[in-house]
C-alpha cells in the first residue's frame, strides 16, 4: 500500500513540476513537436476506424444472434446455435413486411412477387403459443426402402423436441418392403423406445394409385404431367389425413442425404407461410471431380422473360423445369441465380424436397393442384395457389440441404 502511495506521489509531483516549469506549453509551440502530435492523432484516428471496421461485424452478429434465441425461446425450447463449421448458421431475421421494401427493391421483383409482398401483410401471423406449437412431418414414399435408414438418421438428429413432432407417411405402389420397414420403425420409436424417443404420433398410411414409371423415365417431359399429378394426389391424401392441430407442416422427401440438425428452428425463425432451403445434389463433372449444384429446380422466381413466356402459352400448356426434352425454356430464376448475400427471397414456385408450411395455409384449403393451375401442378401449383390466396412464399438460396445422388 505504502509503496503504491509513494509511486503515486512521485508521479504526481513529477507531472506538476513539468507543468509548472512551463516546458509543456513551450514545447507544444515548436513545429516539430506540433507535427509529431498531429501525426500521432492521425494514427490514433486511423487505428480507431480500423478497430471499428473489424469489430462492427461481431457487434452486428451479436445483435442478430441476440434477437433470434429470444425469438426461439418464445417457442418454449432450448435453442443452441450451430457452430459455423457445422454447415449451419443462424438465419438473419429480416422483416419482409410492406414497410421494409424500398421502391427500388420492389422494382426488382415480378408483378406477382410484389403483389404477394403486399398480401403477406394482410395475413396476421400465427400465434406461437409455447405450449402448443407442434410440427407435422409428412413424407410420401414409393419404393423407398433403401433410403429409410438415412431418412431416420437425419430425423433423429433434428433438434426440435421429439415429443412435439408428429410424423406421417403415405406409401403408394411400392414393390419393395417400404411399408414393412415403416411399421418396424413405428414399433421401434413408439413402443420399444423410452418416453423421450417417442413422436407425438407416428402414422403410416397406404394408398395405391396403380401408377408405375421406369425410374430412368421419371424426368422426361412427356411423363411429367402424369407423374406429377399422381404425386400431387399422394401429397393431398397425406396431409388431409394426417393434419390434426399442428401449427407447422414440414414436407420432407424420403431420399435426402443431408440437412442440418438445426434446420427446423432456423426456418421457423423466419416465420413465413411457405419456406424452402436450397436443395443441392453432388454431380460428377469429370473423372475425378464432383460438384454440388441445384437439384430442386422447382423452386424459382418468375422473371420478366418467364412472364412473357407464360403469356404466350395456351391455357392447357404445362410448364416444367429442368427437363432436357421440354419443348420450351421457361427462363425462370432458380436458387443458384441469387447472390451470396441474399438470405431470403420471394419465390413463385417451390419444390417439395424440404418445404416448411404454416399449417394454416393447408387448413385454408391450399393443397397440391392435380389440375393445371397457372400452367403448374403439384408443388409449384401449390406455391402459385398459396400466393393468389395471399400467403407469402419464400426461399433461402444460401441455406443448403442435399438430395442423394441418383
Ligand atoms: N406416396 C407416393 N410417394 C411417391 C410417389 N412417387 C414418388 N414418391 C415419393 O415422393 C418423394 C419425391 O419423389 P422422387 O421420385 O424422389 O422425386 P424427385 O427427387 O423430384 O425425382 C420421394 O420420397 C418418393 O419416394 C408416389 O406415387 N406416391
Ligand atoms: Mg427425390
UniProtKB/TrEMBL annotation:
The chain crosses the membrane at residues 32-52. Gene3D superfamilies: Spore Coat Polysaccharide Biosynthesis Protein SpsA, Chain A. Pfam families: Anp1. The keyword Transmembrane helix applies. GO terms for molecular function: alpha-1,6-mannosyltransferase activity. InterPro entries: Mannan_Polymerase_Subunit (IPR052086), Nucleotide-diphossugar_trans (IPR029044). Keywords: Membrane, Transmembrane, Transmembrane helix. GO terms for biological process: cell wall mannoprotein biosynthetic process; protein N-linked glycosylation. GO terms for cellular component: mannan polymerase complex. Belongs to the ANP1/MMN9/VAN1 family. This is Uncharacterized protein. It comes from Coemansia pectinata. The lineage of its organism: Eukaryota, Fungi, Fungi incertae sedis, Zoopagomycota, Kickxellomycotina.
Amino acid at each position: 500500500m505504502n509503496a503504491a502511495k509513494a509511486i503515486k506521489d512521485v508521479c504526481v509531483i513529477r507531472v506538476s513540476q513539468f507543468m509548472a516549469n512551463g516546458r509543456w506549453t513551450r514545447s507544444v509551440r515548436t513545429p516539430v513537436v506540433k507535427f509529431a502530435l498531429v501525426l500521432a492523432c492521425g494514427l490514433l484516428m486511423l487505428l480507431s476506424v480500423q478497430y471499428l471496421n473489424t469489430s462492427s461485424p461481431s457487434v452486428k452478429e451479436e445483435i442478430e444472434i441476440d434477437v433470434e434465441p429470444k425469438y426461439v425461446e418464445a417457442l418454449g425450447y432450448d435453442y443452441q446455435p450451430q457452430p459455423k463449421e457445422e454447415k449451419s448458421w443462424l438465419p438473419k431475421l429480416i422483416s419482409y413486411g410492406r414497410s421494409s421494401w424500398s421502391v427500388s427493391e420492389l422494382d426488382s421483383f415480378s408483378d406477382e412477387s410484389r403483389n404477394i409482398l403486399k398480401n403477406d401483410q394482410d395475413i396476421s401471423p400465427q400465434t406461437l403459443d409455447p405450449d402448443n406449437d407442434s410440427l407435422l412431418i409428412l413424407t410420401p414414399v414409393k419404393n423407398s426402402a433403401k433410403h429409410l435408414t438415412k431418412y431416420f438418421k437425419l430425423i433423429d438428429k433434428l433438434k426440435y423436441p421429439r415429443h412435439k413432432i408428429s410424423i406421417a407417411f403415405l406409401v403408394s405402389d411400392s414393390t419393395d418392403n417400404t411399408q414393412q420397414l415403416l411399421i418396424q420403425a413405428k414399433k421401434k420409436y413408439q413402443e420399444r423406445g423410452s418416453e423421450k424417443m417417442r413422436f407425438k404420433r407416428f402414422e403410416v398410411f397406404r394408398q395405391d394409385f396403380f401408377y408405375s414409371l421406369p425410374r430412368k423415365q421419371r424426368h422426361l417431359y412427356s411423363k411429367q404431367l402424369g407423374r406429377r399429378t399422381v404425386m400431387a394426389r399422394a401429397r393431398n391424401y397425406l396431409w388431409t389425413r394426417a393434419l390434426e392441430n399442428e401449427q407447422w407442416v414440414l414436407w420432407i422427401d424420403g431420399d435426402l442425404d443431408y440437412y442440418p440438425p438445426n434446420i427446423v428452428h432456423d426456418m421457423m425463425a423466419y416465420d413465413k407461410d411457405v419456406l424452402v432451403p436450397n436443395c443441392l445434389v453432388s454431380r460428377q463433372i469429370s473423372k475425378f471431380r464432383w460438384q454440388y449444384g441445384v437439384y430442386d429446380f422447382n423452386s424459382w422466381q418468375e422473371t420478366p422473360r418467364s412472364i412473357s413466356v407464360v403469356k404466350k402459352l395456351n391455357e392447357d400448356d404445362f410448364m416444367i423445369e429442368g427437363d432436357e426434352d421440354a419443348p420450351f425454356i421457361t427462363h425462370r430464376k432458380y436458387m443458384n441465380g441469387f447472390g451470396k448475400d441474399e438470405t431470403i427471397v420471394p419465390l413463385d414456385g417451390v419444390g417439395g424436397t424440404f418445404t416448411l408450411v404454416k399449417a394454416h395455409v393447408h387448413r385454408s384449403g391450399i393443397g397440391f393442384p392435380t389440375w393445371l393451375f397457372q400452367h403448374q401442378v403439384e408443388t409449384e401449383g401449390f406455391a402459385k395457389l398459396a400466393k393468389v390466396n395471399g400467403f407469402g412464399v419464400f426461399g433461402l438460396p444460401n441455406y443448403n440441404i442435399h438430395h442423394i445422388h441418383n
